Amino acid sequence: MKLRGLSVICCALVIGLLTGCGTGNGNEGSAGAKEIKAESPKNNEIAPKFHPTIEATEQNNSVNLNYRVKNISGETKTLTFPNGIKADYIVYDEAGKKVKQFSEDHLSTQAIEKISLKNNEELTKAFTISDLANGRYNVEVFLNAEEEEAKAVTELNVTNSFAQGAGTLNGQMDPHTIEVDMNGTPTAFQMTEKAIQQLPNYRDGDLISFHYRENETGQKTILSFVVQ
Q1: What is the dihedral of CA 26, 28, 34, 40, to 10 degrees?
Q2: Would you say the pTM of this structure is higher than 0.70?
Q3: CA 7 to CA 13: how far, in whole Å?
Q4: Across residues 3-31, what is the average pLDDT?
Q5: Alpha helices in the chain (DSSP H)
């Protein structure tokens, strides 16, 4: 009887130990899997080295762009510029057509220049655009560096500039005024000195395109004719 009882106790202890070991292994395996998953690196993730920003303001019939590029890499970075234009911009109209680009209208030196930016140091560039007609645009500003583009994009809503007009030249009303047929409506336009100098290039009946402004009283003034 004593041996039978001892055997039962021993069997119970063995089963308990085996059960305990199995449970412990299962918990450790589950916890270990979760830890590996949490610490696994993210593929294709590249930390940014530069942070570009752009501010656009309209003032005195022009648009001012303030472009900044900040080094956020945590170390000094060197940028190499192949010419004197360190930053460039491209303006697109609502249809996605390129309206103008800074580098196409400005000459620059061809000397290579290197600029080193310390961590948190900024490179700034200011642009002024004075010949955009009223309307909505998208503008891209970017570095002309070999190592980094740092492109920034913003929308422009130009309201205090000039409008674009077109029509048939009916004739000259006085030395400073012409009449233009715009969609069947005869409209009088005064002219600036620049427009007056351009007027001899056109004859009555010609289709003309021009930039103009309209004041608070409705008076329209042609700033310049657009050569087609």
Answers
A1: -130
A2: no
A3: 10
A4: 44
A5: 2-39, 102-105, 193-198
Q: How many other C-beta atoms can be found within 10 angstroms of the C-beta atom of residue 212?
A: 21
Contact in structure between 83 and 152 (CB atoms under 8 Å) = no
Q: What tens digit of pLDDT does each residue of 68-88 get?
A: 999 999 999 999 999 999 999
In angstroms, the Cα distances linking 32 to 23, 24, 51, 202 are 14, 12, 38, 84
Q: What is the largest CA-CA distance in the chain?
A: 135
| Three-state DSSP state, 111 | coil
The pLDDT of residue 42 is above 60: no
| Residue whose structure tokens are 């007609």 | 133
In which residue are the tokens 């940028």 written?
Answer: 79
CA angle 29, 33, 37 (to 5 degrees): 175
Euclidean distance between CA atoms 84 and 90, whole angstroms? 17
Tell me whether strands 185-191 and 220-225 are parallel, antiparallel or unpaired: parallel
C-alpha span between 65 and 172 (Å, rounded): 39
Do 222 and 197 contact (CB within 8 A), yes or no? no
Q: Tell the residue number behind the tokens 């009283």, with chain if given.
A: 217
Compute the distance between CA of residue 34 and CA of residue 99 in angstroms, rounded to an integer.
55
Residue at 49: amino acid letter? K
**Comparing C-alpha atoms, which of 224, 165, 176, 170 is closest to residue 198?**
224
CA–CA dist 119, 147 (Å, integer): 16
**All structural domains of the chain:** 50-158 (2.60.40.2360), 163-225 (2.40.50.140)
